[in-house]
User: Fold this.
Amino acid sequence: MKLRSSNFVALAGIAVTLLAAPSAHAAYVFVGSWDLGTVGGGYDNPGNPYIWSNNSQVFTGQEAAAALFGGNASDYAISTVDADAAHINHLTFVDGWGDTQYLYNPASETFSVDMGAPGYSDPGGVGSSYSALVTDHAPFEGSGSFVNYAFRNVSAVPEPSTNAVMMLGGLTVLGMVFLRRRSAQS
Assistant:
């Protein structure tokens, strides 16, 4: 089979279109951490916005990362291991009203409980709320023991828009039609 110039141009156009197709590459970058034992200055800081008795907002691990470091909760992955993205376990240390079970057995990064009116201490009662951003039992259980590590999802390769990919495909087809007509006239 003889490779004609029109076939070559068509194959080149298809290759360019495929190479320009959106990629799904994404990477996590460590952005920071917080320790439930010292967050907001612990019990020693009277202005601590996360102290349980101030009826602080209840957060999942991902929501806590967004509140502390910016962006949306869905931008984050949380880990209880360390600041290495290769070790992300999607778990979060969480403290509970009258309950420390998730300090010792981390919960999912999307876990929180807020029963009753909004806020950690309303209505109160064992197991009525769990938050990944609260000063409650952790300072007494051992500061430095309940550190959540936040990783933000960033795109490794900029993705071209769907319109750009479709335009490349359209140009390829137009080029094939033009060359086909030209070779038919020869």
The longest strand covers residues 26-35. Residues 20-25 have pLDDT under 50 and may be disordered. The helical segments are 5-19, 61-69, 101-104, 138-141, 162-185. The radius of gyration is 27 Å.
